[in-house]
Design a protein that fits this description.
The complex is a heterodimer of chains A (475) and B (437).
Chain A: H1 2-18, H2 20-24, H3 31-37, E1 44-45, E2 51-57, E3 66-69, H4 77-80, E4 83-84, E5 88-89, H5 92-95, H6 97-101, H7 105-113, E6 123-127, H8 131-141, E7 146-152, E8 157-164, H9 177-189, H10 198-201, H11 211-220, E9 231-234, E10 236-238, E11 245-247, E12 254-256, H12 258-264, H13 267-277, H14 280-288, H15 317-324, H16 334-345, E13 349-351, E14 356-361, E15 366-369, E16 374-377, H17 381-397, E17 411-417, E18 425-432, E19 439-445, H18 457-472
Parallel strand pairs in A: 1-6
Antiparallel strand pairs in A: 1-2, 2-3, 4-5, 6-14, 7-8, 7-19, 9-12, 10-11, 13-16, 14-15, 17-18, 18-19
Helix pairs in contact in A: 8-18, 11-13, 11-14, 11-17, 12-17, 13-15
Chain B: H1 2-31, H2 39-60, H3 68-86, H4 88-111, H5 116-120, H6 122-134, E1 142-145, E2 148-154, E3 157-159, H7 161-185, E4 187-191, E5 194-197, H8 203-219, H9 222-240, H10 243-263, H11 265-275, H12 286-298, H13 321-354, H14 358-382, H15 400-426
Antiparallel strand pairs in B: 1-2, 2-3, 4-5
Helix pairs in contact in B: 1-2, 1-3, 2-4, 3-4, 3-13, 4-15, 6-7, 7-9, 7-14, 7-15, 8-9, 8-10, 9-10, 9-14, 10-11, 12-13, 13-14, 13-15, 14-15
Classes of the chains: A alpha+beta (475), B mainly alpha (437).
Chain lengths: 475, 437
C-alpha cells in the first residue's frame, strides 16, 4: 500500500512540478482563458483614445459576468484579436492579457500603493495605432484584397495595420459555446481567409520594392555607388547556368547607373547586381531582417520572411539574379517591407515593431511604457542616406509619381510582383518626409486589385500609400 | 485511558472543523468578496455532525482508535468543500448524505455491540450481498448511468447496492475463511516452489472471480470488479498466509482482464487512452487529458480554492474529485489527502493486526483493503498510473451510497478496535501485546 501511494506521489510530482508548465500551457488546456473570463478586464484603446475593446456586465443569463465587446468590429480585428472562452485569446488580447486583467507586476505594485484610492486593479492597454490612419487605410483598400502597414520609423510603433478581408471578432467572444464554435468554423472554412492577418502572417514575392534593399546591400558591400558603375542598357539579361533570361518590364530597354536604374525600376541592372553580390547578398538581406522572425507583440506573432539559402550561390546563380528584383526565392510579409523602408528612412536602424504604447491603471495613470528599441542595423547611415535620395527620386520623377503629396517630399519604391496563378501583386513602400523621415508605409494589393493584370505598383498601390501618409502627417 | 483517547479525537475533530470551515469560506469568497450568509449555519452543521459522531463513540465505543473518525471527517470535509465549489446542488445533496452517513455510523455502532454477532449471520449476509450485486440487472429496477449499470432506482432515489454488497460479502468471507482456512492453507500439490491447494478448496475464489466477471460484463463496472477481486484475494492471503493465493488471484485477474480486453470496446478504449491519450484529447481521452491539465495547472500550491477550473473535467465531483483537489490545492493538497488516506488505511490494518480474534482480524483486514484498494484504483486512474476505472474515492467523492457505506465501514472498524481494547482491559494478564496506545 505504501509503495502504491508512493508511486502516486511520484506521478503527482511529475504532473504537478516537472511537467506542470507544459500541461498548464498546452493550447488544448483552456483554463488560462477561463480563469480570466470572469475577471474584470481593462479596455484596449487606440492612440487617439477610441475604445477598441471593452468589457461590459453580461446581460445574457449565463455564468459569465462580463461580455467583451469590439465596437470597431473588423477594423482592428487582426491586431486586437478576441477573447474567447472556447478558443482562448489571440492578438493583443493574448499578448497583453496579464496587463488587462491586472496581473502584471507594474500594475500590482501600483495597486498596492493605490489600495486606499480604490482602483479596480485592471489595466488599460493603449495601442500606438491611430483610428484616423486605420480608417483611411481601410477606405483606400476598399474591397481590394491586400494590406497596409504604417510604422513610426523613429520608434517602431505601428500607426496603422489593416488587411482585407477582415472579420467581426464579436461572435467569437460570445458566451454560447456552440455558436462560438460555429462562428469559428465559418471563419476557418472561408476560402478568402479573413482570419489570416495578412500584414504579418502571409508571404508574397516583394517584386521591385525589394530593389531598394538590393541597392542598399550593393552600396554597403561596395559593389556599386549611386553613380558608378554604369550598367549596360539591355532589354533582357542572360542568366548563368541556364538558357533562360531575365526580362525588363514590358520588354523595354533600360540601364545606366544605380540611381537611374532604380528610378526606372530596371530589372536587368538589379539582376546583374544580384549576381555581382553572390553569397554576400544573403547576409545583406539578413541585416534587413529577411530570414529572421521579427519580434512583434500581436499573438501569435509575425512570421519570418525568406530569401535564398546562405552559400547557395554556386548551386543556383539565377536565383540570385531573381532575388535582386524581389522574385524567385524571396518572399516577404507586408510588415517586413515596411520595416525595410523604415530602416532606410531611419539612418539604417530598424526599430523593433510594436503595437502597444503604454499600460495605464484603471484610473488613467501610466504604469509602464512599451520600450522603443532598435531591432537591427540594416545599413550604414551613409548608405541609408544614399538610398533615401534615390527613392525620393523615384517618387519625384520615376515610377512612383502617384505617391506625391503636396508640401511633403516622399521617398518610395514601386513593385509589380509576378505570382503564380493570376495577375501580379501591386506593391508600394515609402517613407516621408524624405528630409526628416517619420512614417514608413508598405502597401500590397493582391492580384492588382480592381485593375487586375493592368495593375502596376505605381498605379494601384502608390496612391493608397499617399492617402495614408497624408493622414498620418496630418496634411 | 479512554478519556485520553476520546479527548484526542475531539481535539483532532476541532482541527478538521477549522479546516473544513476555512475551505468553505475560501470557496465562497472566491465567488463573492463578502462573508457568506450561511457561514455560521455551515459551521454549526459541521460541529453538530462531528459532535454527534464523536459523542456516539464516547458512549458506544469509548476505547476505539481515536484517529479514524478525524481522518474520515477530514477527507469528507475536503471532499465537501471541493464539491461545493463544483456544483451547489450536488453539495446540498452531499450534505444530506453526510448526515445520513453519520446516522448510519451511529446506528451501526449501536446495533453491532459485539463484532462476533456478525459472524453468526454469514449466510444471510452472503445471500443479501449476492442479491445486492444482481439487483441492478433486474429489468425496470436497474438503471444505467454514465455507461455503467450499477444503479437501482426507487422513485426519485437512486442508489448503488454494490456499495452495501461489498461490506456484506466481506463479512461472509471473513467468517467463511475462519472456518476453512486450515483446509485452504494445507497445500496438497507442489508446483515448483508454489504449494497449490486442493482444487476443491478453490471454490470461493472462483465464485468471487465469477461474480467479478459478471459485474464487469453485465454492469460494465471495471472498478468494482477489480475491487471485489483484489479484496478477496488479499483476504485469502491474510487467512492462509499462502502467497500462492495471491499468485493464483493474479493469474485469474490477468486472464479475466485479457478476455475482457478482447471482448469489450470500452475496455480497449480505457487501455489505449491510458497508454496515449493525446491523439484523442478532444474525444475519448478528453477526461484523462483534462485531469492531467488540472494537475499541471495546479502545480505545487494549486490555484486556490474556487479559483481554478476543475469543472472542465467531466464527472469532477465523483470519479475525478482528486484531480479537482490537485488543481485547486496543488501538490501540497493532493499529498495531504493521500497522506490522510494512507493513515486511515494504515490505522485500519493496525486494528486488524492488534485484534486477537481471527474473524475480527480478517474482517478488519478486508475492510482496510477495500479502503486502500478503492483509493488506489481511482487515484492512480486519474493520475494515469493505471488505466482509468470509475470508482469513488472513499469519503471524498460525491455519492450517497458510497458515503453511507464508508461510514458503516468506519463504524465497524472502530467497533473492532473497541472490542480489542476492551478485551485487553478485561483480561490484563493475556494482553500485553494488545494494549491500545
Amino acid at each position: 500500500m505504501v509503495v502504491l501511494i508512493l508511486i502516486c506521489v511520484a506521478q503527482l510530482t511529475y504532473l504537478q512540478i516537472i511537467n506542470a508548465g507544459h500541461l498548464a500551457n498546452d493550447p488544448r488546456n483552456t483554463r488560462a482563458a477561463l480563469r480570466d473570463i470572469n475577471r474584470p478586464r481593462g479596455p484596449i484603446l487606440s492612440a487617439d483614445g477610441v475604445v477598441l475593446a471593452r468589457s461590459v456586465p453580461s446581460k445574457d443569463n449565463t455564468e459569465f459576468k462580463y461580455q467583451r465587446e469590439y465596437p470597431e468590429g473588423g477594423l482592428f480585428a487582426q491586431v486586437v484579436g478576441y477573447q474567447s472562452f472556447v478558443f482562448g485569446n489571440t492578438g493583443v488580447e493574448s499578448t497583453y492579457n496579464d496587463a488587462l486583467v491586472g496581473r502584471e507586476a507594474d500594475l500590482q505594485l501600483d495597486n498596492l500603493s493605490d489600495l486606499v484610492s480604490g482602483s479596480n486593479g485592471t489595466g488599460t492597454v493603449v495601442l500606438s495605432l491611430r483610428v484616423d490612419v486605420q480608417r483611411e487605410a481601410a477606405a483606400a483598400l476598399g474591397l481590394q484584397r491586400g494590406s497596409v502597414v504604417v510604422l513610426d520609423l523613429t520608434t517602431g510603433e505601428v500607426v496603422a495595420m489593416y488587411s482585407t478581408p477582415t472579420y467581426d471578432p464579436n461572435p467569437l467572444a460570445g458566451h454560447n459555446s456552440l455558436e462560438v464554435q460555429k462562428a469559428y468554423k465559418a471563419l476557418n472554412d472561408d476560402p478568402n481567409k479573413p482570419n489570416l492577418s495578412r500584414a504579418f502572417r502571409e508571404l508574397y514575392a516583394p517584386g521591385s520594392t525589394f530593389k531598394s534593399v538590393t541597392a542598399a546591400v550593393a552600396i554597403d558591400e561596395s559593389v556599386a555607388t549611386p553613380a558608378e558603375p554604369v550598367y549596360p542598357t539591355l532589354s533582357q539579361l542572360d542568366l548563368p547556368q541556364t538558357d533562360s533570361v531575365l526580362r525588363n518590364f514590358g520588354g523595354k530597354e533600360c540601364g545606366g547607373n544605380l540611381a537611374e536604374s532604380l528610378r526606372q525600376s530596371c530589372n536587368t541592372t538589379f539582376g546583374q547586381i544580384g549576381l555581382d553580390l553572390g553569397d554576400k547578398f544573403v547576409g545583406g538581406m539578413r541585416k534587413f531582417g529577411i530570414g529572421v522572425i521579427p519580434p512583434f507583440d500581436v499573438a501569435p506573432g509575425a512570421i519570418a520572411s525568406i530569401g535564398p539559402a546562405a552559400g547557395s550561390f554556386d548551386l543556383n546563380q539565377p536565383l540570385f539574379a531573381f532575388a535582386g528584383i524581389g522574385q524567385g526565392d524571396v518572399a516577404t510579409t507586408p510588415l517586413q517591407m515596411a520595416l525595410a523602408a523604415a530602416g532606410i528612412g531611419n539612418g539604417g536602424v530598424i526599430m523593433k515593431p510594436h503595437v502597444g504604447a503604454e499600460i495605464k491603471n484603471s484610473k488613467g495613470k501610466v504604469v509602464r511604457r512599451i520600450a522603443n528599441e532598435p531591432w537591427r542595423t540594416a545599413t550604414s547611415a551613409t548608405t541609408a542616406q544614399a538610398v533615401n535620395t534615390m527613392m525620393t527620386d523615384v517618387v519625384e520623377q520615376g515610377t512612383g509619381t502617384a505617391a506625391k503629396i503636396t508640401g511633403v517630399r516622399v521617398a518610395g519604391k514601386t513593385g509589380t510582383a509576378q505570382a503564380d496563378g493570376g495577375p501580379p501583386h501591386a506593391w508600394f513602400i515609402a517613407f516621408a518626409p524624405a528630409d526628416a523621415p517619420r512614417y514608413a508605409v508598405s502597401v500590397i494589393v493582391e492580384r492588382g486589385g480592381s485593375l487586375g493584370s493592368e495593375a502596376t505598383g505605381g498605379r494601384v498601390a502608390a496612391p493608397i500609400a499617399a492617402r495614408v501618409l497624408k493622414v498620418a502627417l496630418n496634411k | 485511558m479512554r478519556q485520553k483517547l476520546r479527548n484526542a479525537e475531539l481535539r483532532l475533530g476541532l482541527l478538521v472543523v477549522l479546516i473544513t470551515t476555512s475551505g468553505y469560506l475560501l470557496v465562497q469568497l472566491a465567488d463573492k468578496p463578502k462573508l457568506p450568509s450561511d457561514l455560521w449555519l455551515f459551521l454549526g452543521v459541521v460541529i453538530a455532525l462531528y459532535g454527534a459522531a464523536h459523542f456516539a463513540v464516547r458512549r458506544l465505543a469509548p476505547n476505539a482508535n481515536p484517529v479514524l473518525l478525524p481522518l474520515a471527517a477530514f477527507l469528507n470535509g475536503i471532499g465537501f468543500v471541493v464539491i461545493s465549489r463544483l456544483d451547489r446542488d450536488l453539495a446540498r445533496n452531499q450534505a444530506a448524505w453526510t448526515a445520513a452517513g453519520v446516522a448510519a455510523f451511529i446506528i451501526t455502532l449501536a446495533l453491532v455491540r459485539r463484532i462476533r454477532t456478525l459472524e453468526r449471520y454469514r449466510y444471510t449476509f452472503l445471500f443479501i450481498g449476492i442479491i445486492a450485486v444482481l439487483l441492478p440487472l433486474v429489468p425496470k429496477l436497474g438503471k444505467e448511468i454514465n455507461g455503467a449499470r450499477l444503479w437501482v432506482g426507487i422513485g426519485p432515489l437512486n442508489f448503488q447496492p454494490g456499495e452495501a454488497a461489498k461490506v456484506l460479502l466481506v463479512i461472509f468471507f471473513a467468517a467463511y475463511l475462519v472456518d476453512k482456512r486450515e483446509l485452504l492453507a494445507s497445500g496438497t500439490r507442489k508446483f515448483g516452489r508454489l504449494i497449490l491447494p486442493d482444487p476443491k478448496h478453490l471454490g470461493p475464489l472462483l465464485l468471487v472471480w465469477g461474480i467479478s466477471i459478471l459485474i464487469m460484463v453485465r454492469q460494465k463496472d471495471l472498478g468494482s470488479a477489480l475491487l471485489f477481486f483484489t479484496v478477496f484475494s488479499t483476504m485469502l492471503y491474510i487467512a492462509t498466509d499462502r502467497v500462492s493465493y495471491l499468485v493464483i488471484g493474479g493469474v485469474l485477474f490477468i486472464g479475466g482482464a485479457t478476455i475482457a480486453y478482447q471482448l469489450f470496446d470500452h475496455v480497449q478504449t480505457r487501455v489505449s487512452t491510458w497508454i496515449d491519450p493525446w491523439p484523442v484529447a478532444d474525444g475519448k481521452g478528453f477526461q484523462i487529458v483534462q485531469s492531467m491539465f488540472a494537475f499541471g495547472t495546479g502545480g505545487l500550491s494549486g490555484t486556490g480554492l474556487g479559483l481554478g477550473n476543475p469543472q472542465q473535467i467531466p464527472n469532477a465531483a465523483t470519479d475525478f474529485v482528486f484531480s479537482a483537489v490537485g488543481e485547486e490545492l496543488g501538490l501540497i493538497g493532493a499529498v495531504a489527502v493521500l497522506s490522510a488516506i494512507l493513515l486511515l488505511v494504515g490505522s485500519s490494518f493496525n486494528i486488524a493486526i492488534k485484534t486477537p480474534r481471527p474473524f475480527s482480524k480478517l474482517f478488519a483486514g478486508g475492510l482496510a483493503t477495500i479502503l486502500g484498494v478503492q483509493s488506489f484504483i481511482i487515484i492512480a486512474g486519474t493520475t494515469r498510473v493505471i488505466p482509468l476505472t470509475g470508482i469513488t474515492l472513499p469519503f471524498v467523492s460525491y455519492g450517497g451510497s458510497s458515503l453511507v457505506a464508508n461510514f458503516v465501514i468506519l463504524a465497524l472498524l472502530m467497533r473492532i478496535s473497541d472490542d480489542t481494547a476492551r478485551a485487553a482491559a478485561e483480561q490484563p494478564s493475556r494482553t500485553a501485546h494488545a494494549l491500545p496506545q
